[in-house]
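#help-structures
NK: newbie question, is this the right format to request a structure? protein is DMT family protein
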Amino acid sequence: MKAITTIGLLVLSNIFMTLAWYGHLKFKDLKWFENLGLISIILISWGLALFEYFFQVPANKIGFKENGGPFTLMQLKVIQEVITLIVFTIFSLLFFKNETFKWNHAVGFSFLVLAVYFIFKK
């Protein structure tokens, strides 16, 4: 159960992180945000990133082996990176129609999945 909770919280965290880091790139398409300056965009992104921490910190606390969780620190980091790539890929394909998923992306992601395999190998 702690593994599922940890992964679920990491997914939520990464959704907010992706919105904070890349969502502002679509602000020009939204009437309310089209004329915002850089400082305003930074503050909005910072506000979104706050929600990232609301999920990331508990995920690491619950999931960390030394706190009774199922994952080592290295495993937590690699899980988080793979989730980040999955969330980012879905986000970029949904919101940035000019972005495409190419064979080299699939190869690179496959290597990251292999990283998960090797990190979890005893």
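mod (FA): yep, format's fine, and the tokens are attached above. The radius of gyration is 17 Å.
NK: thank you!
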